[in-house]
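Hi R.,

Here's the input for the protoporphyrin IX containing FE complex you asked about:
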Amino acid sequence: MTDAAKNTSGPSLTRVPEMGSAPIGSAAERRLAELWESTPGWRGRLSTVDHKVIGIRYLVTAFIFLLMGGVEALIMRLQLARPDQTLLTPEQYNQLFTMHGITMIFLYSLPVLSGFSNYLWPLMLGSRDMAFPRLNAFSYWVFLFAGIFLYCSFPLGQAPNAGWFNYVPFSGAEYNTGPNIDVYALGMVLLGISTTVGAINFIVTLFRTRAPGMSIGRVPILVWGTLTAAVANVFAVPSVSLAFFLLWLDRQTGTHFFDTLNGGKPLLWQHLFWMFGHPWVYVVVLPAMGIVSDALPTFCRHPLVGYSAVALSTMATMLLGFGVWIHHMFATGLPPLALSFFGATSLVISIPSGVAVFAWIATIWLGRPVFNTAFLFFAGFVILFAIGGFSGVMTAAVPLDLQLNETYFIVAHLHYVLLGINVFPVVGGIYYWFPKFFGRMMNETLGKWSFWVMFVGFNLGFFPMHLLGLLGMPRRIYTYAPHMGWSTTNMITSIGSFIFAAGILIFIVNLFVSLRRGSPATANPWDAPTLEWAVPSPPPVYNFAVIPLVASRHPLWEDRIDEGGGRSSLDHGYLLMEGRETIGTTALDAIPDVILKMPEDSYAPFFLGLFNALLFVGMLLHWPDFTALMVLACCVSLAVWMWPRKALLQRVPDYDKGAAHG
Amino acid sequence: MAETIPLDRPLPVGSEGRRSGGWWGVLALIATEASLFTYLLFSYFYLASQTEQHWPPEGLPELLVPGVNTAILLTSSVCVWACERCLQRSMMGWSMAWMAFAHILGIIFVAVQLNEWSKKAYGMASNLYGSLYFTITGFHMLHVIVGVVILLVLLLWISLGYFDHRRYAAVTIGGLYWHFVDVVWLFVFTTLYLLPYVG
Ligand code: HEM
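And here is the predicted structure with protoporphyrin IX containing FE in place:
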């Protein structure tokens, strides 16, 4: 039964994981660092699979996309500041708002959250990496390449121009002859690959790599949020990938899916798009709400009120989220019964969101809040969430929607939701975790300035848009006549946008200043309760010198609040250092189940990602030979990647091949 | 709580069957791929229910060849299952034989299906039915081809002596994917070949 007997020629197939401790500087700790360190220089950069590096890359890349989308928005606001402006042509305006939407929705809001989750999950769960480190690297590279791909036609003045939801027939070959829509279609299929494998990675990581004792009821809410989003992605992304692929077929090979003349149905596009699109809205807000649920209690010095209720409502929101896609199509002439059903679900969905809001308010109420920058962002978020939720409930009412559909009311609503529930928590989250990421504190004075400027600018920029909507200003118009009565409000909106942008700028300045001159951070500068604060700031490459044993929801607050589970053991635990290793535990109770061998750094993810992107370039440019070559290159990269390795014990070790066992 | 968790049991190391990450990964992959086919078939039903065209254009489909082909594909799945059973008992010769057999059956399925395609009087672009028929079966064909390649690679790995009864997670994982591809075909077959007789 025990192959555990020492065998010099290779790793054994079973062993009892050794317990111990490995303080900084000990021989064991140095060995761990050596095992997990990447090669320095560009080789290491291309081949690293460290979730912390990948997480930061996601954050930075997504933030750059936010800035690009922001610049596009400011140009639009310049154009709209006064009536009859001629800064932009109508076609340029179309491309700008489309790229703004695509960038914000697909290239910023989910990837930035994936960045947080990638960085934080293993640290919060007490693991040494994600379940699939190489897949993680792959998903980043594909995201990066897909982003570049989506922007490749922008400098040529041929960017996607049919709005981010790209309705046919306007996006069909008949009305849109250039490469614009093909870039969007193929780019989205490519991006879908990244999103899907990323989601799979999160799901398996959660179920397999939690520290012993971290049963499913003890994981932080951010983990719940990201898990729910990941599950939704697994089921929803194929829908939009398929829609875009069918559109591409229609445009390039003359199929008839959306072609009315030959029995195709444009509404098929809308169904496929919104079956994905609505869950997506929750995908980009639930993890952000998780950030707040985890960080807010730290500053309130009080555990989150109603942990289980919030965790459950997170999942309930998503389940309902799959049932509301039709509310984007109220104005399309569907049967009234369907409208009533989907309208009702859309109203009901505000209930679980309400649970979360009350949980946060109660936490603030019962706690002793510390009014620092991060807290301000989270509190500001709660206010914006309430406003955005309210205007959302208004449009869930079918009659009102028919009135407001396609006006600036919608633009206001979607910015309150997306900026309020995504951008504010994200910036707050950066203030909160920056010390962990970089080992330095952020500057508080600049921080407070950035919050107030952003908050004021945001409300000034977007609240009046509700009014514009009620005054009947349609969305997606590149200019308007002076006598419409929209001029003043538009001017205010534009000024607000620039103030908001200034706030973001202060934030960026703060980032750079703090990176250089921030005061050094201790392991747990905020006195926070969760595991990521148990390791030094910044965390060592191997995360945890020993895998901790977890006994409660707040391992670092156990001497303050007694949850009756005993004490977690953070300095004494599994050593696991025969190569890169971490513990695999059972899905619900987190009982040790297997010693997982983690892969070495590898170039395969980078090259697979690259060839994969080039394959799409080949399709876009109609180069069949090149495309075929890239398919081949992908196969080779995959074979190299998947080849069973002895070091990972994916195959039988040589030393006792054929030896009888039994 | 920390006390009640058994910490000193011997644990398997590395990719051990259903404890391996890959097994969980492929389950999630199957979930997302199954959704893809669901959306494809949704599109079919959505368009078919509203069409005024002759559906399918050539009249009711011929069932004999596709039926036999379905049986071939399912047999191939059984072979993969048998291959895994033999591995569990370290019967290397047999497991290789089953895997080779499964692979050949997969290739036969592809050949027959290609022949079916060439017999159609219409193509992707001729009419709506053609678009749907070729896209749906094309998607499935792509999965079969990927699967056939996987089976070939697994065969290679088995014959290189990489696996025996203790470590063969790759075969379990690749095999599950293949079963999935075969089950999906049942749905595609039912939709495209059997339902026209009903409706
Ligand atoms: C400085 C901040 C921002 C400003 C000034 C701004 C401004 C605008 C403007 C002027 C439009 C076009 C409205 C129209 O003509 O219909 C727009 C559309 C849009 N914005 Fe923003 N925006 C900002 C940030 C964001 C963020 C952070 C997100 C998402 C996370 C976002 C998501 C969208 C979406 C989805 C659209 C709709 C695009 C479409 O109609 O296809 N925006 N925004």
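One thing worth noting: Chain B touches chain A through 57 residues (CB under 8 Å).

Cheers,
M.
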